[in-house]
Amino acid sequence: MKRFIAVLKARNIEFIRDRSALSWTIFMPFFLIIGFAVIFSGDDKTIYKVGLINPNNSNIEFITTKYIQPITFDNIEIALDKLKHHKLDMVLELSEINAYWINSSAPNGYLVERILWGTGGKEFSKQIVEGDEIDYVDWVLPGILSFNIMFGCLFGVGYVIVRYRKSGYLKRLKATPLKSMEFLLAQMASRLLLMMTITLIVLFGSALIVDYTMHGSYLLLFFVFLLGSICMISLGLIVAARITSEELAGGLLNLATWPMMVLSGVWFSLEGTHPLIQQAAQVLPLTHIVDASRAVMTEGAGLADISGNLIVLGIMSIVFLFIGARIFRWD
Questions:
Q1: What is the pTM of this model?
Q2: What are the two backbone dihedrals, phi and then psi, of residue 159, each rounded to the nearest 5 degrees?
Q3: How distant is the alpha carbon of residue 55 from its chain centre?
Q4: Do 144 and 28 reside in the same domain of the chain?
Q5: How many domains does the chain have?
Q6: Scanning 49, 124, 125, 201, which has its CA 20 to 30 A from the CA of 10?
Q7: For the packed helices 160-167 and 246-263, what is the interaxial angle rounded to 10 degrees?
């Protein structure tokens, strides 16, 4: 335990003394939140997403109207749930009943309804669903927090350990009684402590900048970010286990982060994208961190609602940590 605490303390002091890295980790999320709050403060979306049920039963002009993006659903309950949470602007059932649903609190639903009326849909019966309006800042904030955790954990562990190995620091540690598992656990604990502290600072500090929505439990949100951080740190350990080149480590870490930045739903919803893209997103840990944290913050989801995401993150963490520990070497 003394050896573990010594390495943990040394790593914390090293990070805190690196003022540029500390400042970037804390202030970068604030800059992103402010930027997105300004850029996306309006309601001028150019594409309206419409969920279609039984689309082959009718050929109305509305489906081919410019700026309308039809998305087919087999289950109307799934489509209505997405409409409730503002992931769709309208749900349209093309069958004998010819009905449509809009969200009473969504401005886009009002506009899409007028487009439907102007393209031969006045005879459709109207249905209403209720759901609180979600601003883009509310939607993107969980993604930014998860995004910051991903970068902080991957580069804060993976890149640092490679630098230790290249400088000969790990070789000197090998000559001490310190065991490899003690060293790795100390690195994980240090990064967890720092990332959780920074995430809490950003989360509550954002309340002073933007009036974001929080429907769920802060404790559950903290647990999501904690488990997500463990998963990302474990992934970083795999990259850092044997590599001695900082350039190669940086390339591999960027190779891991860029697909997650694009495909994990941090900046935009994947609704309407190719099914293969949506399936590929499910194998990325950042997807599950974003989905779980967004569900807690914007939908008030409980532990049972996000249990699937948490189970996946837990399994990934165990697998990544096992692989990283097995292939780790000091030199």
A1: 0.69
A2: -70, -40
A3: 32
A4: yes
A5: 2
A6: 201
A7: 170
